[in-house]
Amino acid sequence: MESLNLNLPLLMPSQAQKHVTHNEALVALDAIVQLAVEDRNRTSPPVSPADGTRHIVASGATGEWAGHAGEIACFLDGGWRFFVPRDGWLAWLADEAKLIVRKGGAWQSVVENFSSLGVNATADATNRLAIASAASLFSHEGGDHQLTINKANATARATLMLQSAFSGRAEIGLIGDNDLLFKVSADGNNFVEAVRVNNATGDTCLRSLNSGPLGGLRNAIINGRGTINQRGFAGGALTGYGYDRWKAEGTGCSVTVTAGRFSLTGAISQTIEKSGLPGSVVTVSVDAPSRNMTVTLGTQTGTIPSGAGRRHITLTLGSGEADDLKLTLSTSLETTFADVQVERGPWPTPFETRPAALEELLCRRYFEVAHPVFSGAVVSGNSFRAIAPYTVAKRVVPTTTVQEVEFSSNVPTTVSSYSISGLSRVTGAHVYFVSTATSSAAGVQLKVFASAEF
Question: Please, which domain of life does this record's source organism belong to (predicted)?
Fold first, then answer.
């Protein structure tokens, strides 16, 4: 008879030579209790083993060890005895300096194969490793040291989460794609992207600097909020230009701007002068579009999806695109949106709010309302000229048209003729007129549109 766990021989009643059975059990205990083996990778016995030497027999063993893979081989009294281990047995592996355990019919490292580990903390199914301490140290072993966080695929996450009272406040890593992201949160639920580093180019996108807008003039669009309206466009049906820099496409559209937010049915466009964008990755973004929007930049087309916050499409422009680059925004149904922005790079940054005076000056390069004034003696048959200097040099010599003519009370009541001549991009609006009066002091003010648009 044998014991149930270690298979030790048991003494029988009235057994002769009890010492033999007793000694055999002691020898077995000496071999398998406080087990320490030399190695586990041998397939044949050592040539001159010391008495009491123990090994774990490797798979594919030959000779005296054949058929004993995984068992404990102990050299005793000039021969090998074998002990069949059970799950849960522990052994110290001398050549690898590690503790191993028998589990599932195989030997494996105790430390390497923990399903979970808590150090002064409780591990669980999600947090397989939990540590509660003032600090954690991961050190080198004579050279480099690398901490690796691996994820299953590009859309998964490989991140470092920083928490306060177990509520997330910052997340750093690969969050849903392969760009390096830095996100922050005030409540642990809603995270704001602060920094993005493109994994292919190294381009870095920052949300803001010093809680303010990023470097100036990165938005290639002028009047992205539609609030500059020198023509006095009332909104609604439009052919040609309405709000500064914005032009109706095709047979016309309906567009109205209210408090910086566009309402558009149809298509509007803006041509970016000498954009410098051909051959670049460019992002077109708007704020909170109520419907999907079709975007065409040069020859490239994409869709900005509807939704809250900044919504965008990133396009790669060929080097053969025209440098004067045309942006077209199209909607088949009425769509509201705000803050149109075109910028170099693969990701949208916050809308660039420029000072109102600067935004209007940028607009005036393409369109300006001039007010020539004439004051003096009027003699019948003579022609007179009034000049209104431009505040900004125009893109090209502008086309000028008189919109209004106003007279003071003591001037002739008719103007027989006048003509407009755009003599320069910079000197101003030139107005010529002929009076039918015989003689009088005259005061004439005119409203002139000077357009240098595309």
Answer: Bacteria
Can you tell me the distance from the alpha carbon of 215 to that of 413, in angstroms, rounded to the nearest whole number? 54
- Sorted by sequence, the CB contacts under 8 Å of residue 338 that are 6+ apart come out as 225, 260, 261, 262, 286, 287, 288
C-alpha 380: how far from chain center: 71
- Per-residue pLDDT tens over the stretch 168-205: 999 999 999 999 999 999 999 999 888 989 888 887 88
At 445 the pLDDT is 72
CA dist 315 and 329 (Å) reads: 14
Cα–Cα nearest to 304, from 316, 290, 317, 294: 294
User: Pairing relation of β-strands 157-164 and 129-131?
Assistant: unpaired
197 and 305 share one domain: no
Say what the pLDDT of residue 376 is: 62
Sheet arrangement for strand 54-56: 54-56, 72-76, 79-83
C-alpha of 40 from chain center:
50
Residue closest to 407 by CA, chosen among 450, 379, 378, 387: 378
Helices (H), 197-296: none
| pLDDT tens column, 382-400 | 566 677 788 999 999 898 8
Record the pTM: 0.61
Task: Judge whether residue 314 has pLDDT over 70.
Answer: yes
The residue out of 356, 381, 414 marking a domain boundary is 356
Residue-averaged pLDDT of the chain = 87
What confidence tier does 410 reach under pLDDT thresholds 50, 70, 90? very low
Domain that holds residue 337: 236-356
Nearest to 255 by CA among 271, 269, 230, 237: 237
Same domain, 349 and 372: no
Q: Is residue 303 within 8 Å of 296, Cβ to Cβ?
A: no
CB atoms within 10 A of CB 73: 24
Q: In terms of domains, do 337 and 416 share one? A: no
- Radius of gyration in angstroms for the set of CA atoms belonging to the chain, rounded to a whole number: 43
Count the alpha carbons within 13 Å of 240 in the hemisphere toward its beta carbon. Answer: 4
Longest dimension (CA), the chain: 158
Instruction: Tell how strand 117-119 and strand 129-131 pair up.
Output: parallel
Q: For position 336, what pLDDT does the model report? A: 98
